[in-house]
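New to this. Please check this protein:
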Amino acid sequence: MAREVDIISYLPSVLHEIKEIVGIANVEKPVLEALWQEIENTLNNQFVVTSDGKGASRYEKMLKLSVPASDSIETRRFRILTRYQEQAPYTNRVLKQLLDSLLGKGQYELQRDVAAKTLSVKIELTVKGMFDAVAIMLERITPQNMVLTVQLRYNQHSTIARYTHAQLAAFTHQQLREEVMP
């Protein structure tokens, strides 16, 4: 939030009663508030986490990212952060740290088979909106001789078993499978 500008408070108390001075101050107030807001936006846009649409557009242009119009600002920030955190070659520990920082601990399941040269990542439904960005990032940093599989980890029987059939009847099969259960 930008600063509240009160020009009158900067003037001597003798001038507080003059209509022309108060009128000038009231005319200048919106201009100065807009200036403070622009200064605050510029400072916030220096960092990906606090950037607005304008700042995110600047980062996306620099990184040559294509953005669907329907993406929220959080998804756009996430996509920018994933691009900045890419590094190759990676180790298993670095990959786990990367996924922990992007998705959160316990929000994915990682299986790596060195002999078969496969890497499988299952992402929880709670971070489903970040699926595409994570898949693209993993595709970019995974060695080319490994087979990469990125999937959503749909609801399991253990998740749904605590509900009665009457409660589950309110949902479609697709909702039971692909939506986060309350």
The longest helix spans residues 19-44.
